[in-house]
Amino acid sequence: MPVVPSQKGDGKNRKGPWSTQADQSENEKERRRGDGSDGNDITGHKWELCNVTAGPDYIPCLDNEKALRHIETRHYQHRERHCPEESPTCLVPLPKGYRHSIEWPKSRDRIWYNNVPHIKLAVVKGHQNWVKVTGEYLSFPGGGTQFIHGALHYIDFIQKSVPDIAWGKRTRVILDVGCGVASFGGYLFERDVLAMSFAPKDEHEAQVQFALERGIPAISAVMGSQRLPFPSRVFDMVHCARCRVPWHADGGRLLLELNRVLRPGGYFVWSATPVYQKLKEDVEIWKAMSALTTSMCWDLFTIKKDRVNSVGAAIYRKPISNECYDHRKHHSPPMCKEDDDPNAAWYIPLQTCMHRVPVDGAERGSQWPEEWSNRLRQPPYWLNSSEIGIYGKPAPADFTADYEHWKRVVSKSYLSGLGISWSKVRNVMDMRAVYGGFAAALKDLKVWVMNVVNIDAPDTLPIIYERGLFGIYHDWCESFSTYPRTYDLLHADHLFSRLKKRCKIASVMAEVDRILRPSGKLIVRDESNVVGEIESWLRSMHWEVRLTFSKDQEGILCAEKTDWRPEAYSDSS
């Protein structure tokens, strides 16, 4: 198997160092206020099953029962992340009768019932064509609360309402709030659009788990008391179809968070009963939303009725200049303080304020990205040649070199040299994305890639969004906000050598096992000694190590998770 050399570098040689999400968030927290090395040898580590109420659906940072006893609920804090003090080192059990997932695109329409054995949504939402129980399957007719007659008609309805949206060209990456089973995002793939869909782990049992099992990107998250884990000004559109979010409450704090992550000139599509019904509550909400959006300088671009689904949508546009902000009669909501960092997003409390729109032509957000798919290949206009990139070249050249590197790695090594059947791969995660080059190199495959930018790494996530990909901030010392068994392939390029300095590797390996499906693949590229250590951990979990190779102190490993689970349960998790 050809082994393509690794890229090394962490941005230390950059003129003007890259900020990290940890730095940005910590600095923001400090402004508002006015080494955990593992040390354990893996020998003798005894794997046990997690002894938790959530059982096979365990998400450690969302199912922390000890913390949740003391959490307020007014702003949905109980649906936010509350990680245990010690990250779990146990393995999550499989549901009884679990079977390897159905392949995409068939999975969009049906999944194995035993893999996600929850029927509450089928009972409550079956009449709206969300999900139905069909023998040994759960089937998904493609409907939703606002598009009972199918998502594709609804998607085309939005396009006809505002032709400038231009699915798959001008509009490439969107945020879908309160996504349900994510049929909207699932059918947007047919328009070459990526949707970051999210919904809380709440009484709508397993909605995000359904989405991921179907092969549709989604995370468990909530519009609550904290910023979403995304940079500012990155989504081309934000969509809410009866998402049950009180946008007008608390001075519009939640809508202002959407304003933070929406690109200047981007659209907010709000399809909800206050737009088209005249019940007293709907009229009051519409009046409050009208006042709020006007004060936020959002332009009510159009209101359209979808007569097939008997619904309507109000479509707003975020301003591309500060003129309206400067001429408002009432400065409510206020503008954020100049030193408020809009990109700080890791456990940052929400504020009721707006950031000014960038107007300097060289600043990110002052121009719309190039049309898809040109934006995938072109360095963003705001990457400056005077800045040094992560790998030591001027930033635009660094971006291009990274893209070429990963195209070589994928074509010469990953596609044919690792024994991976890519037709069985749908949900992919790059656990340490830099510029998103790995994801970009997979463009022509029927996969989607969740790009994770670690909070202690240079903050390159805005670059990933600018090129028409998506991702999220995360700290791998904590669990990820996804259900167990939701990814087909995990990719870790020089991740574990960095994590060893501050995380317990046993808990990181337990998390890798948790989020990967049985028969899923893990690709590790790292220092040879680290690759050897990871191999030992994987064998201790009875994974099948398919390939290891080492040269010049650099190694690569490809392993497959098996169905093995321990027999004993831990005392407590």
UniProtKB/TrEMBL annotation:
InterPro entries in the cross-refs: Put_SAM_MeTrfase (IPR004159), SAM-dependent_MTases_sf (IPR029063)
EC number(s) on file: 2.1.1.-
Main location: membrane
Cell compartments where the protein resides: Endomembrane system; Membrane
GO BP term (any one): methylation
Gene3D superfamilies named among the record's database cross-references: Vaccinia Virus protein VP39
Pfam families: Methyltransf_29
GO MF terms, alphabetically ordered: methyltransferase activity
Membrane disposition: Single-pass membrane protein; Single-pass type II membrane protein
CDD domains per UniProt: AdoMet_MTases (cd02440)
GO cellular component terms listed in the entry, alphabetical order: endosome; membrane; trans-Golgi network
Compositional bias (Basic and acidic residues): 26-36
Chain segments carrying region Disordered: 1-44
Record key words, sorted: Glycoprotein, Membrane, Methyltransferase, Signal-anchor, Transferase, Transmembrane, Transmembrane helix
Record-stated family: Belongs to the methyltransferase superfamily.
Protein name (Swiss-Prot/TrEMBL): Methyltransferase
Species per Swiss-Prot/TrEMBL record: Acorus calamus
